[in-house]
Amino acid sequence: MSAQSRLSHRSTGQFNPQEWVAEGDGLLASSRKVRDTWEDHRAAFSQTAKIHQQNGGQSPTADDWTLLTGLPRASMLLLGYAVEMYLKAGVAKAYRGCANKMFERDVKRCFGHKLDYMAHELAFPRDQNDHQQFKKLTSMVLVDARYPVLVPEGGTYAEAVNQQTSRIWSENEYVELCAIGQRVRDHVSRIDTDSKNPASFQSFNIDDDGYLAFRVGGNLPPRITYRLSTKMREEGVNAASDVKLILDECGHHQLLRCWDQAWIYEDGLKCTKRVKRPSASTG
Q1: Which pTM does this prediction carry?
Q2: Residue 2 domain flag
Q3: CA distance 243 to 206
Q4: Residue 65 confidence class, pLDDT cut points 50, 70, 90
Q5: What is the residue range of 219's domain?
Q6: 101: which of 61, 63, 88, 241 lies 20 to 30 Å off by Cα?
């Protein structure tokens, strides 16, 4: 583990938060472009259909119908993925000092498309309706803008399609979801860059293959992540309280002072588990 790379300000690729933000910006810009294209196509489609109905001119083609239904779905899917990228940029910041392999594993297995969960982990300042908005975005990524409509038991196909179309075509819905995406981006951008809330980091090895990473400030709750070394496991060490015992006041006074208020995580052999989250913590 001592030779294993950990996230830092020098990280590149998916371990660099700005790379995730750039991906999100590209997806969001594409979403808006697709939405604008759809609005233009929708107006032209309506005009063609109207002329056909009145004068018997050429009717909309199969491609016209495909674009009419496909473009708004694509815009919502791209929007949902953009917000996911912004949130994962925040996760990369929260994981500073942690093992690259831990981040790579967690970003796929623990977080995936769980937008509301990631927002919670990043202490995203919520409005009253944000939980529902994150649910809608997640649904766009997983179901509405991605798969054929699911007809609930007791419902009809027509009802299901109409409800799905209403969610995807609604301009108000799209504008509101874009707004929460921008708020997420703003929050993530403030993490570790706010002079009014400076961040402090500490990271060190434990024996040959363990480590501890600590961060406080930067608009995130205090966070401690540790991985037990092989030697510690052989000696029966298996709790965060045991890890605390190896810390000395002289070298780790800030860490010890924040211990009871910190969110504590163990980078395990196969997964990461939250060991402790104080009930009074923000988020």
Answers
A1: 0.92
A2: no
A3: 10
A4: very high
A5: 199-276
A6: 241
Three-state DSSP state, 163: helix
- The total of other beta-carbon atoms located within 10 Å of residue 57's CB is 11
Is residue 40 located within the same domain as residue 168? Answer: yes
Residue type, 149: V
Say whether both 53 and 85 belong to one domain.
Answer: yes
How many structural domains is the chain composed of? 2
- The tokens for 145 are 């803008």
Residues 232, 138 within the same domain: no
Helix/strand/coil for 89: helix
CB 206 within 8 A of CB 246: yes
Neighbours of 103 (CB within 10 A): 24
Place of tokens 């009014």: 196
- Rounded Cα distance between 139 and 168, Å, is 11
> For residue range 172-224, what is the model confidence (pLDDT) as tens digits?
999 999 999 999 999 999 999 999 999 999 999 999 999 999 999 999 999 99
Domain boundary among 190, 213, 228: 190
Q: Exposed e or buried b for every residue in 247-266, given b needs 16+ CB within 10 A? A: beeeebeebeebbeebbbbb
